[in-house]
Design a protein that fits this description.
six-stranded antiparallel beta sheet, 2 domains, alpha+beta, 411 residues, Jelly Rolls
Length: 411
């Protein structure tokens, strides 16, 4: 029996901030004053690289903080600390003499503290230095660090800075190498822009569609992102009349789930046959846009039955169902990393193997890509797109899946 869940009107707010752990929903709104904070050693990169990077970011309307005073001494002003705390992303430009500056190293300590406490994104840029030189304090970079140690003679501080350099060198970032600087800067800007478009608080548009849908407008691109609530999906045995299979949970009352933008989520109690579909009219999306569709979910303690892959697919009107279905693994134990912790090349390699693996989002929900599609132009952006997640072959019992919804966002 297939139950199509009823439509209803709602207004929903975008999620701002992230919870502190996978099963902890206590999160707070982060008031970001700047999109980007630039950390760098002035004498190495201020005149050319940083100047071009800063103006490139500003040209793209990315609110960027830059300290226009040359770093001096050891103590950083409270105003600068406040600027770091109020920035969504910190770009740390690691250059040849970066580790010779107490100012830069103390700035780095603050940045990494904000990464831990405020969930700030940290993007290292390796400018004419190799990540291994930063990680191990070797080469010219290491000589600068040793020079500072000889001057300072403070082992406690040196150990703190050493740990910070190791940590930042292990983050996914950008390595100049032998690249053209202008292309390198453009790649950084595009990466920052995509992160801001995803994490920036978005304005919420109201559409009289009679559906429980969150529609958001990105301030940078003007493109629409849209999320269908679990109540708007077609779920086999997902009716309230069969509570032994699925249960509807008020999301605001759950102490073990991430914060939801909707009033209810669907909890899988026990099924053998998993079949979830979402449908949407393409005319409410941005025209001439490539969209990715993502299944947004979580797992509760004690979940089981998800060691086999599910099939995910997208079907446009008049296309056969399941023609391009691919494997996807919902089990979070396979991969609990965030997208920032792996390079795009590594993620693509993973996806090319046996199937797609889940990504943990900053709002602490997990997502897995269902597929992608293009919308038409203003005059021909009509039709329906169906997104499907299905496992009907193995028939193992499954339990513990929490369905948040399906999200559509520009790629």
């Amino acid at each position: 029996m297939v139950i199509t869940l009823t439509e209803r009107m709602t207004s929903s707010m975008a999620i701002d901030g992230a919870s502190s752990s996978f099963l902890d929903s206590s999160s707070s709104i982060r008031p970001w004053n700047h999109d980007v904070f630039l950390s760098f050693r002035g004498e190495d990169v201020r005149q050319k690289f940083i100047s071009h990077l800063y103006h490139g970011l500003v040209k793209k309307k990315i609110n960027t903080y830059i300290d226009r005073d040359l770093e001096r001494g050891e103590e950083i002003s409270p105003a600068l600390f406040k600027a770091i705390e109020g920035s969504r992303i910190s770009i740390v430009v690691l250059s040849k003499n970066y580790a010779e500056s107490r100012w830069c190293l103390n700035e780095l300590l603050k940045i990494l503290d904000c990464k831990q406490v405020r969930k700030q994104i940290v993007l290292p840029v390796f400018y004419c230095v190799d990540p291994s030189e930063v990680r191990n304090q070797k080469g010219d970079f290491g000589k600068s660090f040793d020079k500072l140690g000889d001057q300072l003679k403070d082992n406690v501080k040196m150990l703190k800075w050493k740990a910070a350099l190791e940590e930042v060198a292990n983050l996914s970032g950008f390595n100049l190498g032998n690249r053209d600087e202008s292309e390198f800067i453009e790649k950084i800007i595009q990466s920052v822009k995509s992160r801001i478009a995803y994490h920036r608080p978005l304005s919420v548009a109201k559409y009289p569609m009679g559906k429980e849908i969150s529609v958001q407008i990105d301030e940078l691109s003007g493109k629409k992102s849209l999320m269908l609530a679990a109540r708007e999906l077609t779920i086999i045995w997902g009716s309230g009349e069969t509570p032994q299979h699925w249960e509807w949970i008020p999301s605001t009352e759950s102490p073990v789930l991430p914060k939801s933008r909707f009033s209810e989520v669907a909890l899988l109690r026990k099924v053998s046959w998993l079949d979830i579909k979402g449908r949407i009219e393409t005319e409410i999306l941005s025209p001439r846009t490539k969209y990715g569709a993502y299944f947004i979910y979580s797992m509760v303690d004690g979940f089981y039955g998800f060691h086999n892959p599910v099939k995910v697919s997208i079907r446009l009107e008049n296309e056969e169902e399941g023609g391009d279905a691919i494997n996807a693994y919902l089990n979070p134990r396979l991969w609990l990393g965030t997208q920032e912790q792996r390079s795009n090349e590594e993620l693509l390699q993973i996806n090319r193997q046996d199937g797609r693996l889940p990504i943990k989002r900053e709002d602490m929900w997990m997502e897995i890509e269902i597929g992608e599609f293009f919308t038409g132009g203003h005059g021909d952006n009509h039709g329906e797109v169906e997104m499907c997640l299905k496992e009907v072959q193995v028939l193992h019992e499954k339990s513990g899946l929490v369905v948040h919804g399906i999200e559509l966002r520009p790629k």
